[in-house]
Amino acid sequence: MVNRPKAVGTAAETAVVRVARAHGFPAADRLTLTGSHDRGDVALYPGVVVEVKGGEQARSASDGDVERWLAETEREREHARAAVAFLVVQRRGVGAPNAGRWHAYWRFGWLADLHGYPATPATYRSVVRLSLADALDHLRAAGFGDPTDA
């Protein structure tokens, strides 16, 4: 019998992989669990990992949940020795077929670093929310992934 929370996570991660592959990241794939040294849920491209939250907990996430998950995302980026990481959270009313519209959260500093702009300590911790599709566009603009026709 499959563990329900694990099945929910797997479904969310699979939806993110599907969107990533369609948006210029053909090698995107789910990562295996590695216990206390988890490296994120999805590898998009060499040096890029994603933490994914799905199910009811994600759909009803509070600001505090997002803050905790961003801290987890940063730890996992370090474990993966990745240059870039961000958090994807499933939205209420937006199912897996439309996962490109799910929320992608970044620290302002992570996004500034991605594009080569310095972030000050005062702005580094600010949270930025994009759609997953827009986050993938930012990654491609910064040189990650493959070009797309879009």
| Whole-number total of structural domains | 1
Count of distinct strands: 6
β-sheet strand percentage? 15-25%
Q: Describe the strand arrangement of the main beta sheet, using strand numbers.
A: 1-2-3-4-5-6
Mean pLDDT: 91
Class by alpha and beta content: alpha+beta
Evaluate the radius of gyration. Answer: 14 Å
Query: What series of H and E elements makes up the topology?
Result: HEEEHHEEHHEH
Q: Nutshell version of this structure?
A:
The chain is of the alpha+beta class. The chain is built from six helices and six strands. β2 and β3 (48-53) form a beta hairpin.
Task: Describe this protein's structure.
42% of the residues lie in helices and 19% in strands. The protein has one domain (4-141). The N and C termini lie far apart (41 Å). The protein has six helices and six strands, in the order αβββααββααβα. A hairpin with a 2-residue loop joins strand 2 (42-45) and strand 3 (48-53). It has 150 residues and is an alpha+beta fold. It has a six-stranded mixed beta sheet.
